[in-house]
Amino acid sequence: MDRQHPIVEMRNISKTFGSTKALRGVDFTVMHGEVHALLGRNGAGKSTLVSTMSGLVASDTGTIRISKTEVVANGQPYATKIRDDIAHVQQTPQLFNLLTVAENLFLENPLVRKKFGLVSQKLMMSEAQALLDKWNVDIRAESLAGELSAGTRQLLEIMKALSRGVPVIILDEPTAALSNAEKRMLFDQVKALKALGVSFIYISHHLDEVFEVADTVTILRDGLVVKEREDVGKLNVELIADLMMGEKTVRSVRVDHTRSDAPVLLQAKGIGLYPVSAEGVDFQIKPGEIVALAGPVGGGKEALAMMLAGQLTPYKGKVSGSDGMLPTIGVVPTDRHASGYVGLLGVRENVAIGGLDVLSGRLGFIKVDKEAAHVGNLARQTNVICSSLEQAVSQLSGGNQQKVVFARALCQNPQVIVALSPTRGVDVGAKEQLYALLRDLASKGLGVIVVSDEEDEIAQLASRVVIVFEGKITGELRGDYTMKDLILRMEGVA
Amino acid sequence: MSDAMTGKAKASQKAGRSRLSAFGSAFVAGGYTMYPVLALLVLVGAIVAPNFATGINLINILEQVSVLGLTTIGLTFVVLIGRLDLSLEGIVGFAPMLAAVCLVPVAAGGLGLELPSWMGLVVALGTAGLIGYFNGFMVVRIGLNPFISTLGLLVLLRGGVLIVSNGRSIYSPGPALTYLGSAKLFGLPVSVLVFAIVAVAIGLVFKYHRYGRALYAIGGNEDAARAAGINVDRVIWSAFVYAGLLAGLAGVLMTGRLDSAVTTQGQGIIFSAFAAAVIGGVSLGGGRGTMVGLVSGVLLIGVINNLLTLAQVPSFYVQASTGAVIIVAAVLTTVASRRSSGVRTRT
Known about the structure:
heterodimer; A: alpha/beta; Rossmann fold; six-stranded mixed β-sheet; 16 helices; B: mainly alpha; ABC transporter involved in vitamin B12 uptake, BtuC; 14 helices; 4 strands
C-alpha cells in the first residue's frame, strides 16, 4: 500500500511518573502498512510510549496524530477520541473471566448491536465462531474466558484487537505466553493484515521475532530515541545490543562476598515450577551470595523465588536448608501496594508484623521496649524517612514504602532474604540505598536472592545470575560477566 | 526587626497548630472521638431527665449494655480482619437456650437430660465455640463469603431455638447458668464486671498481643500479612471462634438477667452491635478500630436508649431516633478519622 505516508505521528511526547521521567520528548512515526518494532531495555519507555499512543496513559506534552484524528496532549485523558483508530494489546490479557469468549470478543462492538443498544446473541455467536475458525483455534465461543489457558487468553486478546478493523494495532509482548504453533498463527495474521494496509507497533524481547516480522526498528533508551526508523535489514543483534545498552555510567559496582567454603544456606532439589513441568529445578545459595533470578515474564522466575521463600508449595521436589531445617527467610514481595505494606498502619506496626516471633514474650504479648528499639534500628538500617514511626505507611513516598517492606523482611533476623523486583517504582537515590543495603546484608553472611527484570540492577548486585525460562533453568552467569552477556541472555538470543 | 518578629510569631503559631493537629490525630486514632459527644449527652440527660444522673440508673445502663458490649467485642474480632459474622445474634439466643433445656426437667420444657447446673455454662460456651469454629471452617476451608454463610446460620439458629425449646421459654434454668447475669459483687452487677474485665483484657490483646497485631495486619492487607509470615488462615478461623464464644457469654448474661431463656432472646442485637462498632470507629473494611472506641459506641447506644425511655418518648419514636443517631454518629466518626489521618477507610 501507501508506505510513504505516515499514519501515526507523535511529536515531543513526555511522561513523568512521580520522580521518574519515563519519556523525554520522544518523536515517533509509523507508516501505512508497516510493522514497526520498538526496542529497548526494561524501563527504557517502550510500554509507556505505546500507552501514550493508545491513550491508556495520557501524555504530558506534545501532539499525537493517528489517521485523521489529532490530539494535543496536556496530561488529560484522550483515549476515547482515538478509540476507533487504534487497538492496544497489553502485556497481560485484559479479559473478563466471567464472560464468554464471544462476549469478550465483541464487547462494545457495533457489529453485533441492534436497535436500542440490544445485542444480538445469535449474531455474536456466529461471528465469534467464524473468527475462531479463521484463526483455527479449537475452543467454543460459549466457554468462559476464565477457563482458558494463558496462551489462548493472549491469543483471544490479539484476535479481539485485530478484528476491530482499526488501521493501527499495538502488540506489546504478544508472544510471552504463546506456544510456537500459536506464534506462527499470529505472524501469519499480522502479515495478512499488513498486506491490507494495517500498521503494527511491535514490542518484543525476542530479537529473532523482530527480525522475522518487522520492517522498521526504533530503539529507545532512558526515555529517549537512540535510533529512529532504521531498516531492519541494516541491523544485527550485536548492533542492537550496543544501542540498547549505551554508555551508561554504572553508579555502583557489585562486590562478591560469597563464602564458598561455608555450607549451603538454602537449596532446592528437583522442584516443579508449574503443575505439569516435566523437569525439576535445582538451586542452591551460600552465605554472602547475591543471586539474581532473571528471564522473561511468566518464565517461572517469580514462582521459583516464591517457592524458595516458602510462600508457594512446589508442585514436586523439596526446598531445605543444609541440615534439613529451613533457615529463617525474609520476603520482599513483587508488588508492594498489593502485598507489601499495610497502608492503614504505621511504620512501627508494619515492620513489627514481620517479626512477631522475635518481639513477643512467652504469652504472646509484644515487648514494647524491645519493639521500639528493634524497629528503630531497622528503620535506621534501611534509611526510612518518616515524620515518626507512627506515620501511616500509605502517606510515605514509594521509595520509603519499599524501605519499610525491607525493614519488615529483616525484622525476624533472617538468614536468607528473597526480594522480588526490589526497586520497582523507586527513585534513583532510594535505589542506590537499597543496593547498598543488600550488599551490606551479603557481607554479613546473609544469602540474598533477587528477582529482577532490570539488567542494570542485576549487574550492580548479583555475583551469579540464573536465567529461568519455561519452568527450567536455561543458563547461568558467574563472576565477571559483562553487561553485554547479560543483555543477550535476557533477550533470549544467546 | 519587625519581619523577624512576625516570622517568629508565625513559626510558633504553626508549631502550635501542628501540636494541636497531632493531638487531634492521636485523639481520633485512639478511639476517643465519641467521648465528648457522650459527655454532652450525659450532661443534657442530667438536665432534662431528673432520674437520669442517679447512681442506680447509671449502673442500670451499664448492666443493659454489657450484653451488647460483649457481642460487639466478638463482632470486632471478625470485623478487624475485614469479615463479618451475622450468626452472633443466633448464638446469643441459641447457646443459652440449649444449655437451659439440658438442665431443666421435662416438665419445665427440658430435654430430660437434667445435667448438673454448672454444666449449663459448659454447654452454652461449648456450643458457642463450636458454632464459631463451624463459621471459620465455612469461610477458610470452603471459601464462602461470610455474609451469606453466617446469614444462613443466623436463620438456622433462630429455627433451632424453637426446635430445642418446642417454642416455649425456659424459666429458672439453674443458679450456675444465671449467676453471671443476675448476681451482684461489691454493689455492682457481675455482668458489668464481666464486661469490664473482658473489655480490658481483649483491649490489651488488640493492642499489645501478637494476635491483635495479626488481626490488624490481615484486615489492612491480607497478602502483606501472608508475606510477613503470619498464618492468615489460622488467625481468621480463630477470630470466628472467639467471636462465637463472646456471643455465647453475652447470651448467658442475658439469660441470667431475665432468669429465663426466652425464645426471642437476642433478636436484633447484631444491628446494634454493628452500629456500636461503627460509631466507635471500627472500620467495616477491616484493619482499623480500638477497644476504647468500641466501648464508646456501646455506651452511646445504651445512653440514648435509656434517655429516650426516661424522657417518655413513645416507643415507636425511640426506634426511629436510634437509627437516626446511628447514622449521624457514623458520619461523624468517619469524617473525623479521614480528617485526622488522611487515610480513607471504607466505613
